[in-house]
Amino acid sequence: MSLVWQADFYRSPLHDADAQVLWELLICDATRSFEYTATCPQSAANSSWLTEQFQLAAGEKMPSLIQVFRPQSLSLIEAAGRNLGINVEPQRQTLALKQWLQEKQYSIAVDKPPPSPLPNNLWGDEWRFASIQAGDVVEMFSDRPIPILSLPESLQPLNLGLASTTAIPGVVIYGGRRSLNLARWIAQARPVELNYIAGAPDGLVLEAGLVDRWVLVTFEDAEVAQAAQVYEQRKQQSKGLHFLLVQPDDSGMTYTGFWLLQSTRE
Prior knowledge:
Blueprint: E1 4-15, E2 21-28, E3 35-41, H1 47-58, E4 65-68, H2 71-84, E5 87-90, H3 95-103, E6 116-117, E7 126-133, H4 137-142, E8 148-150, E9 167-174, H5 179-189, E10 191-197, E11 202-208, E12 212-219, H6 222-237, E13 241-247, E14 257-262
Parallel strand pairs: 1-4, 4-5, 6-12, 8-14, 9-13
Antiparallel strand pairs: 1-2, 2-3, 7-9, 10-11, 11-12, 13-14
Domain RNA-binding protein Tab2-like N-terminal: 4-104
InterPro entries: Tab2-like, Tab2-like_C, Tab2-like_N
Domain RNA-binding protein Tab2/Atab2 C-terminal: 107-262
C-alpha cells in the first residue's frame, strides 16, 4: 500500500534562544497515526534541510506522495521531493494536517485572489442546477465512457456515510461544441469546490488548485438565486459533497466531464 504524507513547512510563532524566527515542518498521514515535527532557523529553511528531514522522518519507508495545501510551502517541498524521487501534489484536502495545525492554534488561512472570469472562448451554451441521489452517483458515472472523470474513492457517498437517498447537489453545463475544451480546462485547473456567492450580480465561483478562483457564471434572476440557495442547503446536508457535470447537450446520452467535489471551508 502506497504511503501518503501531508506536510506543511512555514514560519511558526516559535523563536530560538537568539530571538530568531523558526520555521516548522509538520508531517502526518491521513489518520495521524504518524506525526513528525522539526524546526530550523529561517536562514536554514531550504530544500536541502527539508530533504534531510524527509529522510529522517521516513526511515526505510519513503512516501510515494506528499500533499501540500499551503502555496508558500509548495516550491521548497517540491524541490526536496525531487531530490528523493517523491511526487508532491498541491492539495487543499489535507484534513488531518489542518486539524493538527488548528490544535496547535496555527493559522491555516491562505490568501486568495479575487475570482477571475472564465475565458470567453470556453463558456457553454446553457447551465442548470441539478441533484442526484447519493446511491446512484457512482453507478451512473463509473461505467460510462466519459473522457474526463473524477470520482475519488474518499468522496464517494458510501465512504462518507451518506444515506443512499441523500440528494447530492450539482451544476450541469451544456457545452455544445465547446464541451470537450471546457472539460479539459476544468481538469487542468484542478477543481476543488463550486460555491454560490450572493452579490450584485450573484454568481457561481469555482475554487481550484490551491488558491485559484474562477467565476463560472453570473445571474440576477430571483428564481435562479432561490435555486442557488437550495443548492447550498443541500451541500450542508450532504457533508459538502456536490458535483460538476459538463455535457454537449441536454439529451443525457453523452457526458464529457464529471467531477465529484467537496466543500473545504474551514
